[in-house]
Amino acid sequence: MMERGLIDIPGGDIRMMMHMQRIVWISALLLALLCLQTVNMAAAQEQEDCHLSGRILDKSDKTAVGGAIISMGSKMSVSFDDGYYNMSLPAGTYYVNITSPRYKTFTGVVNLTGNMTMDFELEKRPAASACPTTGLVMAVPLAALGLAASAGRSRRPGRAGGPPG
User: Any idea where the domains of the chain sit in the sequence?
Assistant: First the structure.
């Protein structure tokens, strides 16, 4: 008499067939777990931050620019006195903006694919004139300043412009 759900294989043993089914199920389970682990590892690698570092330099003389503000995406960093900066971001393409008071703002695009070193060079702003000359001269009527009544008089006796007194 055969057990329900089992097939009688000529020359085979039912117990051997049950054992083989268990091995197939365990192998399928292990394969599924391995695939799941591989997918999790790939997702974890995509989410890991890339490290970007380098220096901010003066374009004309290659000296360090300290205190420059570097912004990429939602992250910001400030360069040290020696011009070095570092930041961590997920891999991707970012707009980079670098500002410093004595320099023009630098804007560019960075494609961050892994740990990278990038130096940026900033151009100095043109020197501003201390006293800009416009060439305009303004004339203001004395009456508007309330000085018309005393314009020709002197308050000290003996001075020209009015009687002593």
Answer: 10-46, 48-122
Q: Two tokens at 129?
A: 């004139």
Do residues 72 and 89 lie in contact, with contact meaning Cβ atoms separated by under 8 Å? yes
Let me know if domain 48-122 sits in CATH 2.40.160.10.
no
Cβ-Cβ contacts under 8 Å for 70 (sequence gap 6 or more): 56, 76, 77, 78, 79, 85, 87, 96, 97, 98, 120
Residues of the chain with pLDDT under 50: 44, 130, 135-138, 150-151, 154
Say if strands 75-78 and 69-72 run parallel, antiparallel, or are unpaired: antiparallel
pLDDT digits (tens, 9 = 90+) for 52-81: 999 999 999 999 999 999 999 999 999 999
Pairs from 42-47 (Cβ < 8 Å, separation ≥ 24): 46/90, 46/91, 47/90
Residue 102 and residue 139: Cα distance in Å, rounded? Answer: 37
Report the predicted TM-score, pTM, of the whole model to 2 decimal places. 0.51
